[in-house]
Amino acid sequence: NDRSGSDFLHGFSNSSEVPAATFLTIAQIPEPSELILLTTGSLALLAHRSRGVSFL
User: Fold this and answer.
1) Overall pTM surpassing 0.85 (yes/no)
2) Which tens digit of pLDDT belongs to each residue from 11-23?
3) What are phi and psi of 40, to 5 degrees?
């Protein structure tokens, strides 16, 4: 477990707390604009792929 005190992607449950299960929760998103760019890029890529447009 990460005990550095960082809240960036902290949320993996301890295996002793929840046996046989691992949960990932995002405590905070440091750059909302980065998330928006990633989402927009992913949607654009999916739109191009669904139309059969090849990048290569």
Assistant:
1) no
2) 555 545 555 555 5
3) -60, -45
